[in-house]
Amino acid sequence: MFISATSKIRKQAIYHQGTLAFENTSVSLDDFLTGAYDYLSPEYPKFYKMDRLAKLGFLATEVLLRDASIKQYAPEAVSLVLSNAHASLDTDVRYHEAAKTSSSPALFVYTLPNIVSGEICIRHKIKGENTFFVSPSFDAGLLEAYVNQVMQQPSVQACIAGWIDVMDSHHDVFLYLIEKEKRGIALPHTAEELTKLYR
Amino acid sequence: MEQLMADLKKQIIEALNLKHLKPENIGDDQPLFGDGLGLDSIDALELIVLLQQNYKVKIDNPQDGPSIFRSVKSIAEYIRANQTA
Question: Where's the Carrier domain (chain B) (predicted)?
Fold first, then answer.
């Protein structure tokens, strides 16, 4: 099992394999996300309806799979293991405020952290096992152990895993693609390597 | 009626976050769901809220939803027929 690709979004900058791909620090987080969407031009209008957590996950996955395809695998052979610290609290708070004056079903549907998993699965036609952990901070040991367990299933060929956290303007995203075949950057899937890549 | 449809198009774009569209991109008779504008069931709920908040119009029978929300024109006609002065 090898890590084939990585993406990161931090301080309104997007990195692919550790190299800066897009940056705009002079605007709000929302405008940064829209600008990054325009830059990547994925032609996926549903992006505009997503909450910040889903937008961050969507953008990070677009960049992650820029050179690394998962199309060769059956939808059921690709899994998703995500984690964060704030669950969906960023949207929960906004929904709580909005609900004082009006109701918004479109906002309400994002008041669960694993909705970002669903958005990524729909976009990339992933139908494998998916899991979302909530922990105080990035837990390389947890990801190593759990993703290895998922990858040991004979039916699973690849897994997108990592950390997608957002609360107000704070955001921290690190995703990686792990495959059974040696491809891309081909790094070992260990807690030590994940800790280095996450930094 | 023309002004009402123009207002509705702006409000629909705003309420449903259809930022890739401009009011002139939405035809009066264009289907809003399915192969038309591609709206989904959550959008339908947002449209119900929009009618209640902006026009004080409620939909009493949910089964009427598909015909009311068929197009901007059908929504405007429903508002005209059900809005109290």
Answer: 1-83
